[in-house]
Design a protein that fits this description.
By secondary structure, this protein is α/β, with parallel strands linked by helices. The chain contains 22 helices and 10 strands.
Length: about 575
């Protein structure tokens, strides 16, 4: 019954409908008593059945049918399909939480687990949660009304029925206990298959890039998926074996219960403790009503799978929320790092006691070796993560004191790896400002130097881009993302190596777009290109999570250190010829 509690907890606005549905299921099975009474009348009037008797029996059966139909119809109207509404709201709620989740959550939970939770697990609950509750409540109500009927006939028959029902329910809970282990094993196997499948699909371009077919390497790579699939098959087969054995035992107990109750009724009749109509009623009703408990066999597996699925959702979608501040207005855009320390895993520090100031309206370049903590600075300013120690201030206030939405409205981010939604180019640009007109979108595209190539596409701004922007080149995607940032017109621009992976032709276009984007804004740029670094008002040199140099290009060039070595290496690379 733990699943019913979990369902009511999740139901929200549907809670009362769910409760009403369970109550109506209970009432619906009260028709068992009407059938019980109709059987008794039939056997009682066997010797002298009159037209009046037949009409009475028919009347009782009609009332039983009508009562069953009306309560069933009311239950279906109230609660059938309610879980589709529950999980529609749940998906929307989780979607909102995901938008505000710290990026560490996505590192801890694999993409395959999140997708499985949103697809397979939720779909299973939508289809079978209501059925699980129906079976469980129906089994409990039939047991209750069966006991009432049997005790009404004879106390001894009632006591034997109670013992039989206790055995039946014990078997149900035993099935639940055994199945719980099997479902946990199956969930583990499904997770491994999903992980291996995502890994194999994402690795297809790499496999096709190398002629490894005859070396056995491809087979070795795919063996992970094969092994995971075999583990899942074995887990599912083992589950079926356990369930079939338990099912046979359960069916045997129900059949024996019907038989023992019938034998006891016959025995009591021979001793004169019950009348023949009562004995016959108990015999017939026993087989029919005990048979109605067979649905508990299906309930047993659902009573395990559904709670296990619900627990899976709670584990995977237990999404931490970044704490919300109360401030809504940013008075100025000075950014201050004050002794900031941070690590992604609480063990290996990425930033160590880092302090610097980025004045409003300035252009700051961040340079340093790979893995030194440059992108982490961008992530912390954007509150993708929160600092471990120290504080980051914006307008003299800790960024954690601002409402997250208000903070992000002041930031425009242009990433190295651009993601475009599977939608039109216009909608991808308008994503930054849903209220923008078509003219606003076109103006932003022109400033980002992407209007021309957009107009050359088959449907111009209405051209659909592939998933992730796969139908566009890297440089085209980058310029679309800059147009998106221009349309947002936030006062602070964060550029994460925006030109590091594009060709020289696209680079000039992107640099021109960035120049347009930077006008009148505070710009923080992670860059390896000399053209970007030289124009900065200040340069922050990061190494091993520490600020090791700070100043303008000419100042740092005359100092011995990482920056001058970096510049010399870049100049040698620029002069290199084949």
């Amino acid at each position: 019954m733990n699943f019913i509690k979990l369902s009511l907890k999740l139901a929200g606005q549907y809670k009362n409908r769910l409760k009403a549905g369970m109550f109506l299921i209970f009432l619906q099975n009260a028709s068992v008593l009407f059938g019980f009474f109709a059987l008794f009348l039939s056997f009682n009037w066997m010797k002298e059945t009159t037209t009046c008797h037949l009409w009475t029996i028919f009347g009782v059966l009609f009332v039983s049918f009508l009562f069953n139909f009306l309560t069933g119809w009311a239950k279906s109207s109230l609660s059938d399909g309610v879980f589709f509404g529950i999980f529609k709201n749940y998906r929307l709620t989780v979607g909102e939480k995901l938008k505000k989740a710290p990026m560490g959550y996505f590192a801890e939970q694999s993409l395959s687990r999140i997708l499985a939770a949103f697809t397979n697990v939720m779909k299973s609950l939508e289809n079978y949660a209501s059925m699980s509750i129906d079976f469980a409540v129906s089994g409990a109500s039939i047991s209750f009304f069966l006991l009432v009927g049997m005790f009404t006939v004879n106390a001894k028959i009632g006591e034997l029925t109670l013992v039989c029902l206790a055995l039946i329910w014990f078997c149900v809970f035993l099935m639940v206990h055994l199945s719980r282990k099997e479902v946990a094993r199956e969930h583990t196997a499904i997770t491994k298959v999903n992980d291996a499948l995502v890994d194999s699909i994402c690795g297809i371009p790499v496999l096709r890039s190398f002629p490894l077919a005859d070396t056995g390497v491809v087979e070795e790579i795919h063996s992970k998926l094969k092994n995971a699939s075999e583990d899942l098959r074995l887990a599912q087969v083992h589950f079926e074996i356990v369930f079939v054995i338990c099912s046979r035992i359960f069916t045997t107990i129900i059949n024996l219960s019907s038989l023992f109750v019938t034998l006891l009724a016959c025995y009591l009749y021979t001793r004169g403790e019950v009348l023949l109509p009562q004995a016959l009623t108990v015999s017939a009703a026993g087989f029919m009503i005990f048979g109605g408990l067979r649905q508990l066999e299906n309930a047993a597996i659902l009573m395990v799978k559904n709670p296990a699925n619900m627990q899976y959702l709670e584990e995977v979608l237990n999404i931490p929320e970044i704490s919300e501040g109360t401030l809504e207005v940013v008075k100025n855009q000075d950014i201050v790092f004050d002794k900031v320390s941070f690590s992604y895993d609480n063990r290996n520090p990425v930033l160590k006691e880092m302090s610097f100031t980025i004045p409003q309206g300035s252009k700051t370049a961040i340079v340093g070796p790979s893995g030194s903590g440059k992108t982490t600075i961008i992530n912390l300013i954007s509150r993708f993560y929160d600092v471990d120690r120290g504080e980051i201030r914006l307008g003299a206030k800790d960024i954690r004191d601002y409402k997250v939405e208000k903070l992000l409205k002041n930031l425009s981010l242009v990433f190295q790896d651009v993601y475009l939604f599977q939608d039109t180019i216009e909608n991808n640009i308008r994503f930054a400002n849903p209220q923008a007109s078509h003219e606003d979108v076109v103006e932003a595209a022109k400033k980002a130097h992407c209007h021309q190539f957009i107009m050359e596409l088959p449907e111009g701004y209405n051209t659909m881009v592939g998933e992730g922007g796969s139908s566009l080149s890297g440089g085209e995607k980058q310029r679309v993302s800059i147009a998106r940032a221009l349309l947002k017109n936030a006062p602070i621009i964060l550029l994460d190596e925006a030109t590091s992976s594009v060709d020289p032709e696209n680079e000039s276009e992107i640099l021109a777009a960035i120049e347009e984007l930077s006008k009148g804004h505070t710009v923080i740029s992670i860059a390896h290109r000399l053209s970007t670094v030289r124009k900065a008002d200040q340069i922050l040199v990061i190494d091993d999570g520490k600020l090791v140099q700070e100043g303008k290009h000419n100042e740092l060039l005359n100092e011995e250190g990482i920056y001058s070595a970096f510049i010399r290496a870049r100049e040698r690379a620029a002069n290199w010829k084949l």
